[in-house]
C-alpha cells in the first residue's frame, strides 16, 4: 500500500546529501536553472526516496548564483527549471524543463529516460507545503503545481496493476518491483515475516543473480534491505531461499516477486488519514477495486467502485454517495473528515483517477464547460483497459536495461530499519504523532523565511526588469489560460492532449531512439504515435501564437531519451517570457479599479410587495434565487458550508474575468460576456442540484455524477498563478516583491491565497480590500495549515495580512499607481457594466460567509499564535519604516447600514445616509491622522498577541423610530430569498431579498450590504451616499428602517497596540 | 503470498481430550448451571472426530491430554489462531481459560510455528480479547466477529500478526460466535446459516471482501459449522453434523460435488455452545512458496 506518509515518515536518513551534491553539479550549467529554494529545508530530514526535502547545499548554491546574476542577463533569459526527480532505484535524475511547461512534459522526459513504454501505471509526485505527496497533474503547468519549494519530484507507481503478469514488458515489471520493494521496506506495504523472506529472496535473485558463496561472500545479504526492521533471522531465511533459485533470471524473479506482492492485502492501497462522522480516526484506502475503510489495521468497511455513485469533497469533507443496497430504498451519503481541504481534494482526485483507470473502459467525457459545476479535473490518461490494449501492441525487442544495484547498507542497518518501522506504526496507529510532526515542519517553514528573502527578491527584481523591457505581446497569457481549460475539458488522453506547449516536447520524439520507436509508430495506440499525431495537430493549428511558433521552430530540442535534456537556447524563450510579462501590465490595470476604502453598508428595506424580490434586484440576477433559498433555509451554519465552494467557484470565475480583460482589451467585452454566461449557467445547474438533493446539499454542489466533481480552485489556481507572476513583475517596486517573497515563503499554497497575494502586492490600494479579505476567508475554510492560518487570521479579521503583504510596496507604488490610474479608469468604464453583473453573485457569498469564518479563524488563531508572532517580528523589523505610510493610505473602512421598519419614511432614509456620511468621514480621518485606537468599538478578535497592525472596526447603527411592527415574535414563513451583488468603482453592493409571510402579511425585506473599499483618495462619504441613494431609487416603494455603518480601519502597531 | 494458498490444506490437527469436568464450567452459554451433558457420549463423539481426522482425512493428530482443572480446554480452537507458520496465542475472554494456552503453546512451538502472544503484545492492560471461534480465515483474508468474547482490540492484534491479509471485522448477530454461524466449506466456499443474524453477517462479509465466495446456505445454525480439509490426496473432505442432529441441512451438503462427506456427531459439545471446529486446531506444515 502506498500512503500519504507525510512528515511522519521522514525518518532520519542522514546520508542523502551525497546524492544531492551530485544532482547539483549536474545542474549547474551556465543557464543556471532556477531552483526555488525550499522553505522547509533544514528541518525535515527525509527518507531517501522521494522527499522533496531540500538540500541545503543545493539551495544555497542556486541562491548564490541567482544573487550574482546581473539583471541584464536576466532579461534575456527564459525560465528553465531544474527538476530533480528521484527515481525508483533511489537515484536522482536531473532534468531541465521550462518553467511553464505542463506536467506531462516532465513525466515524458522521465519515461523516455527510463525507456518505459507502459507508462500509464506511473506518475510523478511532488511534495506540497505540508510535505504530502501529490500527483503531478499532466495537464497543468509545473510551476502552478510546485508553488514553492524546490522542484523536486519522484517517479512512482500510480496505479498498481492488479495482475502484474499481464504487463507486457519486463522493464515495466522491473520498475513496479522497485516501487514495491520500497513500499515494503518503508512499511507502507506491511507483510509478514514469511512474506518478507520470500520477497527478499526474489529481490536478491533479481539483483545479484544466483547464489554463489564464493563471489558473494557470506554476508552479502546484510547489505540489502528487505524489511522495515530486518533481523539476522530474516536474512538467513532469505539466503536459504535464495540458494534454491539457481538459474532463475532476473525477470523471472521479478515475476515471482510480483505474484507474491500482489496478494498482499495492502498492495496498491493508497491510504489517507481521515475521521468518520463520529470523529473516530480511520484510514481511507483507495485501490483498484474501490475505497477501503480502515480503523487501525482493521478493515471496517469497503465500497467497491460499482457501489459508489458519486464522490465529492467540500472543504475538508469527503463524501461518497452509495448505491442503495438490495433492501434499501435510498442512496446514502457517507462523509469523512480529512485533515484539511487539500487532503480532501487530494483524496478526491486519487479516487477519480483510480475509478477511471480501473473501472472505466475509457476516460469519462470531460464535463461540458458551461454546464457543470466544480472542478474540471478528470483523469485524462488512458484507462487500464486502454493501456493494456496499447501495450499489447508493443513489438519492440525487449529493451536492454540495467538493473541498478539498490542502496547498500553496510553500516546503517539499525538506523535504517527502526525509523521506518516507526513511521509505519505512526501511520497506521497514531496519527496524533503524525500531526505533531507536521506542525513542526511548518514551524520550520516559518523560521526560514528571512533567509531566503534576499534571493527571491533578486529574482523578482530580474523579473521585473524583464517585464519592463518587454514589448506588449499579443495575447499569450490569455491564450494559455484558454488552452488550459480547454484541455481539461476536452482532452481524452493525457498523453496526447494537444496544446502547443507539447509540440515542443513532441518534436523530439521522432528523433530519438529510432528503431524501437519506428516500430511503435505503426500501432495506432502506441505512445509515440499518439505523440506524433499530436505534434501534427500542433503544426496544423492555423493561428499560431508566438509561443507555438517558438516551440515548433525551436532548434536543438531533441535530446535523446537517455540523455539529460538540453537547455533551450535563450532567445526564443525570451520572447515567450516577455509576452506574459507585457500582458501583465494590462492585467494589472484591472485590479486597480477596485481599490477604495471598504465600507459595509447594510440596508434592510421592507415592503409589502412580495414580487419585488426577483424583479427589482439592482441588476436582477434572478437566476440565483433558488439557490439562495436553500441557503437561507438551511440556517447559518449550513449556509456557510454551502457557501464555501460557491465563493470559491466564483472566485475562480472572477479570476478568469480579471485575466481576460487584462490580456486583450478588445476582447474584454467578449470575454466578459462569456464568463457571465458561464456563471449564469453554473448557477442554474447548481440550483437544480440543490433542490434535488437538499439533504445532501453539500455533496450536490460539487458534483453530479460519479466522478465528476470539480475543483474550482484548480482553475482558479492556474489563473491566479499566472496573474500573480505578472502583476508582480509589473510592479517595479522591489518591496512589493519583498512582501510577496514573504508570503511565498509562508508557503501559501491555496490558490485563493495566491489571489490574495496578487492583490496585496500588486495594488495595495488598487485591490479591493474586501476581496482580499474574502479570499482569505475562503482559504480559512479550505486550509487549516498553520501557515495559512497566520495569514487568514491577520487578514480576515484585522486585515493585517493586507498590511504585511503590500505595505512594503506601498510607497513606491504610489507613483506608478497614479499613472496607471488613468489608464485603469478608462478601461474600467468599458468593463464596468458587465463586470458588475457578474460580481454580484460573488459578493453575496462573500459577505454571508464572512461571519462564520471569523469564528473559525479565532479558533485557529490560538494554534497559530506562536508562529504568527514569530513571523511578524521578522516582518516587522523590515517593514516598520513603511508601516505608517501604508496604514494611513490604505485605511480600510467599512460601513454597514441596515434598515428595518414599515413606515415609508423617505425622509428618514435620506437623513440617515447623511449621518452615515459624517460617520464615514470621521472614521476615515481617524486612522489617517492619529492612527490611534481611538475609535469606538474596537473589535479585535484574538489579535492581542500580534504586535503588528490592527484593524479598527466601528459599528454605528441608525434605526428608524418605528419599531418593527410585526416584530420578531412571529418568525414568519420564508417564501423566497435572493441575493444580488453589484459593483461600481469603489463600492460593492450585496442585496439580500427575503420574502416572508408573517401573520398573513407577506413582507419583503431587502438587506443591502454595501462595501466601499479603498484608501483615503476616495470620498467614502460620497460613495456611501451614492450607494444609498441608488438603493432607494431601486426600491422606491420601500422604506429604509435601519442603517448600520460598520467601519474597519487599520492602525499601526506602534500607535495601535492594544 | 507465501502463505496464500487456497484454503483447506492441512497436515496436522491438534485436539485436546474431554476432561471429567466437561460441562462443569460455570456460566458460559448454558442457561442455568448444569445442562445435561453426557460426558461419555461427548468423549465418544470426540473419539469419532479425531478418528475421522486421522484415519479418513489422513492428518497427523496431536492430542493434548485433558486437564480436569480446565473444564473448557477441549475447546482448543479458541486459544490459538494459526495461519501458515504463525500461531497467535489468543487471550480468551474468560480469565480462567487463559491458562489453557500453555499446553497449546508448547505443541505449536514443537511444530516450529512462530508463536505470537497476544498477551505479550500489550500486557494485560491492553484489554484485547480474542477467541479463535470468532475468527474465520478463508485462505485470502480474515473475518473477525466482534462478539461478547472478542473485541476490536483483539482483532487489531490479529491484524498485526497476520499482516499479509486483510482483516475485517464483522458483527456477530446470529450466534454467540462467528464460527457458530459460518465456516469454510471449500477453498472458495462459505457455509452459512440461514438465520437472519447470519445473513446480516454474511452481507457485511460480502461488502468487505475483495473476493467472491460461493455461499452454501444451510437452514440450521448448528449445521453451518463444518470442517473442510483438502486431504493429502487433494481430495475434499467435509466433516459436518449428521442428519440426526441437523435433519434439514443434510441435503444441502449433497450439493458439494465430489466431496467426501463425513458426518460427525457433536451434540454434547454443541449443548455447551461449541461446534465441530471448536474441537481442533488445524495446521499446515507444508508451506509452498512460489
TrEMBL record, chain B:
Q: Does the keyword Transcription apply?
A: no
Q: What InterPro entries does UniProt report for this protein, alphabetically?
A: DDAH-like
Is-annotated flag, keyword Hydrolase? yes
State one molecular function term (GO): hydrolase activity
The protein's matches in SUPFAM superfamilies, at most eight in alphabetical order, are given as: Pentein (SSF55909)
What species is given as this protein's source? Eleginops maclovinus (Patagonian blennie)
Name-wise, this protein is Dimethylargininase
Q: Which top-rank group of organisms is this from?
A: Eukaryota
Tell me the organism's taxonomic lineage. Eukaryota, Metazoa, Chordata, Craniata, Vertebrata
